[in-house]
Design goal:
Helices cover 72% and strands 3% of the residues. The chain has 132 residues and is mostly helical. It comes from Pseudomonas mangrovi.
């Protein structure tokens, strides 16, 4: 028997990490836009959004189930979330490279990597007890 987690995404502890990533999207966009110009600004924005959207997708899939009886469903949802995240990331990069001209690839990948790194290090920002 799988126990479905009915907690909305904004109530899960991972939402704090997603919120910090969203803040990084704004920072990357402003810094790239002000320092390097308009093309770098929206290139950084697109790269940042690719990472953020993929992480939101993963979080919504990964935290679908909970409890010891749902261990098989938890593993399957983690796997499908990780695979979906990779496919979504590749598809979004392909769309950006095909559909956006002019584009500054350095700003695009910098924005992507900064938001991705924020997510990885954002786990350190979470409290020991996520219920408080």
């Amino acid at each position: 028997m799988n126990i479905r987690n009915r907690t909305p995404l904004h109530r899960l502890p991972i939402f704090h990490v997603i919120r910090v990533q969203a803040l990084m999207v704004v920072v990357v966009t402003l810094v790239c836009g002000v320092l390097f110009g308009r093309v770098a600004g929206y290139s950084g924005l697109l790269g940042s959004l690719i990472a953020l959207l993929a992480n939101v997708f993963f979080a919504s899939k990964a935290f679908r189930y909970f409890g010891a009886r749902s261990s098989k469903a938890i593993v399957q949802s983690l796997w499908s979330g990780a695979m979906g995240k990779q496919i979504l990331t590749a598809a979004l990069f392909a769309l950006v490279f095909v559909g956006v001209k002019p584009l500054q690839p350095v700003a695009l990948f910098a924005g992507y990597l900064l938001v991705l790194g924020t997510g990885a290090s954002g786990l350190l920002l979470m409290k020991k007890n996520p219920k408080h």
